[in-house]
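Here is an idea for our session: we take a single protein and study its fold together. Which protein we use is up to you, so please pick one and set it down. Once you have written the record down, we can walk along the chain together:
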Amino acid sequence: MFLTKEAVRIAGPGFWHAIACDGCPTLDDLMGRFEQAGGRFLMYPICFDAHKIDKGNLLSNAEPGRTFAMWNWIGDDGATTFSY
């Protein structure tokens, strides 16, 4: 996932300690599933820096990177979808 604006907070510790809805898995559980499936977070550095997130406290599957890094990350797969 490419994170911008407030979404960069997702990659910091402790953000996922909540329940989305009655009967839903916890956000901690969903985050664990995402990571186990190989999910990665790429955070737009300007937004990341604006929120003063400590790089030493990022989730193991998260890193800052600009849009060029995002396109390299995506590769040449013709089935890529973006949603903003």
